[in-house]
Design brief:
globular; about 120 residues; three-stranded antiparallel beta sheet; alpha+beta; Aminopeptidase; 3 helices
Length: about 120
């Protein structure tokens, strides 16, 4: 397990490499975040706490990603995550392909969002 200092150094390196992270907060509680790399047009992670699912947090974070990357972006999610897949497809993202995760080999679905 890395130390807190090692984690901070890693975060600093990632941010210097172009990462952008936006955190959603409600009543002083973190309820979600989106991590993206705009210079590569990649949405890497969109997470919403389970108790906040369906409250609009995910939609707000995805709208933020669309505003930050208005020319479009790609992402992938686990193919078995039906809820996430419905969310992305209902939000207008297009399935590009299904493949194995580059590290774990787990089935993932790749998506693309193109500006209207």
């Amino acid at each position: 397990m890395p130390t807190l200092q090692e984690l901070r150094q890693k975060v600093d390196l990632e941010l210097a490499g172009g990462w952008r992270v936006t955190v959603a907060v409600r009543e002083n509680d973190v309820v979600g975040f989106v991590a993206m790399k705009p210079n590569e047009a990649v949405l890497n992670e969109l997470f919403v706490r389970p108790e906040a699912i369906g409250s609009g947090v995910g939609q707000a974070l995805l709208a933020h990603a669309k505003a930050v990357m208005p020319a479009g972006f790609t992402l992938f999610t686990r193919s078995a995550n039906a809820r996430a897949r419905r969310f992305y497809e209902n939000a207008g993202l297009i399935v590009l392909r299904q493949a194995a995760h580059p590290r774990t080999g787990e089935p993932v679905t790749y998506y693309r969002w193109n500006a209207p």
